[in-house]
Write a structure and sequence with these properties.
The protein is of the alpha/beta class. The protein contains twelve helices and five strands. Helix 1 crosses helix 2, helix 1 packs parallel to helix 12 and helix 2 packs parallel to helix 9. The longest helix has 33 residues. Bound molecules: thiamine diphosphate.
Length: 328
């Protein structure tokens, strides 16, 4: 590799590291204020899975779209949503991304092409395929990416969405994040046959498999897959193995797995992996430290913003809804 190529890779690595650290920092900040009772409801954290949103979204343009899941904070941040408005959304405040009506599981930010997190498992698939169909009809060159977990591949929308995308050659990248669990269950207990990649291939969709804790590898695989989508070759599928370090929800004490298992998987932290690689490539410790400090400041400011934001009044309940109906 030439010096210029090495420098480009280091710059990319720093971009991905910053994206992952911002995601981790947002979720750790959210977890700490949730523990103080400031956030209503539960949170689904994606700690340990940050390489996926960072690696995929680094290949997307602002005008490209994504659809996400109940575990969607990372996807939102990597696509460009602002942590302050996201935090206010978690708090249920007026300055939230969805004016406090969606909460953690329903953050959407159309300004950055983030079409929505989704409380319905597999619910994002139809949305992403629809966005890709719109892009095809408009001929505007946009692509859409759809994140979902291994649990979603056993739901009907998976078959319907992949099939529809294939027959119409839609520019959509399906991204299956296999984090070792569907809620409290291992994928092997719920998924028949050889699993998600084989199902995608059986529909004729080019499929890439990658180590989901290696941000650079995720980036490169997504780049290749998205290039096919952009060139009009139709859908592509990216399957990645990663690991959910925290519980399914913030309230889950994970009695279904051993502490040793978690300990082992923590040693494969995607952020630490990339940090170590960048240090080996000559990036100074101070530069790496600065990324973490900046993220920490950004998230503390996000919390302050959320706390200062008003609670929506009752009159807000029927604003922004498609059909509020006639008042009785
Ligand atoms: C249609 C539907 N069925 C069931 C649920 C309940 N549920 C919430 S999360 C979850 C597990 C999803 O697993 P996976 O897609 O692998 O995502 P992960 O939680 O592992 O990130 C289930 C079954 C739901 N939200 N929607």
């Amino acid at each position: 590799m030439s010096v210029a190529q090495t420098n480009t890779r280091v710059a990319l690595g720093l971009e991905l590291l910053r994206s992952m650290i911002r995601i981790r920092s947002f979720e750790e900040a959210a977890r700490s204020v949730h523990a103080k009772g400031e956030i209503p409801g539960v949170l689904h954290l994606s700690i340990g899975q940050e390489a996926m949103p960072a690696g995929v979204c680094a290949n997307l343009r602002l005008t490209d779209t994504i659809a996400s899941t109940h575990r969607g904070h990372g996807h939102c941040i990597a696509k460009g949503a602002g942590p302050a408005a996201m935090m206010a959304e978690l708090f249920g405040r007026l300055d939230g991304t969805c004016r406090g009506k969606g909460g953690s599981m329903h953050i959407a930010d159309f300004a950055v092409g983030m079409l929505g997190a989704n409380g319905v498992v597999g619910g994002g698939i139809g949305i992403a395929v629809g966005a890709a169909q719109a892009a095809r009809l408009l001929g505007d060159g946009r692509v859409s990416a759809c994140f979902f977990g291994d649990g979603a591949v056993n739901r009907g929308p998976f078959l319907e969405g992949l099939n529809w995308a294939r027959i119409y050659d839609l520019p959509v990248l399906f991204v299956c994040e296999d984090n070792g669990f569907a809620a409290f269950t291992r994928p092997t207990e719920t998924t028949g046959g050889p699993g998600a990649p084989a199902r995608a291939r059986s529909i004729g969709i080019p499929t890439f498999e990658v180590d989901g804790n290696d941000a650079m590898a995720v980036h490169d695989a997504a780049a290749e897959a998205l290039e096919q989508c952009r060139r009009g070759k139709g859908p592509a599928f990216l399957y990645a193995l990663t690991y959910r370090i925290d519980g399914h929800t913030i309230a889950d004490r994970t009695p279904y797995r051993s502490a040793e298992e978690v300990q082992l998987r923590r040693a494969d932290d995607p952020i630490e992996r990339l940090r170590a690689t960048l240090a080996e490539q000559g990036v100074e410790a101070a530069a790496l430290m600065r990324i973490a400090v900046e993220a920490e400041h950004e998230m503390q400011a996000a919390i302050a913003f959320a706390r200062a934001s008003p609670i929506p009044g009752v009159h807000e309940a029927l604003s922004d809804v498609q059909d509020a109906g006639a008042p009785s």
